[in-house]
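Researcher: We're teaching a course module on how sequence relates to structure. For the next exercise, students receive a sequence and then see the predicted structure as tokens, so they can try to spot secondary structure elements on their own. Here is the exercise chain.
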Amino acid sequence: MNIFRILGDVSHLLAIIILLLKILKSKSCAGISGKSQILFALVFTTRYLDLFTTFISVYNTVMKVIFLICAYVTVYMIYVKFRKTFDSENDSFRLEFLLVPVTGLSFLENHSFTPLEILWTFSIYLESVAILPQLFMISKTGEAETITTHYLFFLGLYRALYIANWVWRYHTENFYDQIAVVSGVVQTIFYCDFFYLYVTKVLKGKKLSLPMPV
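Model: And here is the predicted structure for the students to work with:
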């Protein structure tokens, strides 16, 4: 395991912690897409089924359990504990537009046609687009709270660091996973505009705002 993988995992975990603390501190999930959080919970569930079949390391197991717990706690807080603050009107992205093609692609393009492998592939493809409901919600409302932009920044940074991890592994281990790499690059591309706005506005103390869709 290299430094880029570790920093990527730390960035991912930090993003989730920022989101959870934001909800707990404000007692509100305003501005947060519940649909994106459902997709992330589904990503972790289908990816980490190997918890019951394969032991890799203590670090690997602990991180998987933490991500699973945090994902479902987040969904619980949005749809149960603080449901009165949830903006369902603006969280209107049609999930079937993501789930149907991702499911089909996971059956067509995978490493081996076995249940666990198909579910792992499904999780990789789904993660690459899981943030779209959140970005759609921001574009629909026209702005995002500063703390929400921090969450998105660290989530995007996690993917960028994982690209560095794959480059490192290719040069040092001659390891290359086309499914993971292509999906990760696609996911990082979705964050590019946001990264620009984050650096030029949020880091300068300005509120991130986007043009409202016509």
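Model: If you want an answer key for the exercise: Residues 44 and 68 are 6 Å apart (CA to CA). The longest strand covers residues 143-144.
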